[in-house]
Amino acid sequence: MEKRNRQALLKFIEENGGDIKQTINWEDTERGRNYNLLIPAPILEMDLSFNSKIILGLIHTSVKKIGEMRMNNKRIAKYLCLSENTVSTTMRNLIELTFIEKRDKGYILSNEVVEAVESRKERAILLPFEIFHSKLPPGAKILWGEYNSLSKGVKPYNKTNEFISKRLNIGKSTITMFTKRLHKDGFLTKYDVYSDYEFKERIVITKIFKRNKKDAGQ
User: Fold this and answer.
1) Which residues of the chain have pLDDT under 50?
2) Global pTM value
3) Would you state the pLDDT for residue 218?
């Protein structure tokens, strides 16, 4: 028997009047568009790339829901709006750092990371689909999650850059740059800076995304 690829199969079915069975991944459905990634505080503080933190958040959330994360690199890349090469490199690094483990059907967090997450109950952040699936820089996505964890689209977030820098392991100048980008792209409904001779404070309010009540992360 000669083995042929999927393209050859689809061509054969089409030429012979058959029906082409389409496989729909859950992330391409309404459920996938109402998904939130939960990133716990210990992961936010790790000395890792922003992409690594978001992918760890995806794995953490999937493990909580179904026991493991069963998406391949191509699906992860499409879902998080990253290149497949970036995802492949990040996943390989996370395995080498023993932060995640490969299972037969998917990935789980290592015991080390699970213990770190479960031993501390500080405020986590949620990234809704509209944020993690956007073209924003990964660091801006995480910063939006930090702002929204207190703002929730209603209250002003006024923590200092020093506080944010320590919590997210991010540079202060980068915070300012990402905040301006979030405001420019419409992900903040308010961004004001108040200052005088010895005083400076920033106020931000995040955008509210309309979601089904059972799926709302606001």
Assistant:
1) 215-218
2) 0.85
3) 38
DSSP-derived 3-state class of residue 49: coil
CA triple 152-211-70, angle to 5 deg:
100
**Strand (E) or helix (H) holding 189:** strand 188-196
- DSSP 3-state helix, strand, coil percentages of the chain (rounded to 5)? 50, 15, 35
Structural domains in the chain, sorted by start? 23-133 (1.10.10.10), 136-207 (1.10.10.10)
Place of tokens 């050859």: 8
Q: Which one-letter amino acid corresponds to residue 146?
A: E
Question: Look-up: residue for tokens 């493991």?
Answer: 68
Taking the mean position of all CA atoms in its chain, how far away is CA 206?
17
Tokens encoding 204: 């931000």
Please give the structure tokens belonging to residue 104: 């037969």
Task: Check if the beta carbon of residue 77 is closer than 8 Å to that of residue 164.
Answer: no
Instruction: Provide the token pair at 18.
Output: 């058959």
Tokens, residue 9: 């199969």
Q: Compute the distance between CA of residue 37 and CA of residue 53 in angstroms, rounded to an integer.
A: 11
Helix (H, G, I), strand (E, B) or coil at 124: coil
Question: Smallest Cα–Cα separation from 6: which of 25, 17, 18, 20?
Answer: 20
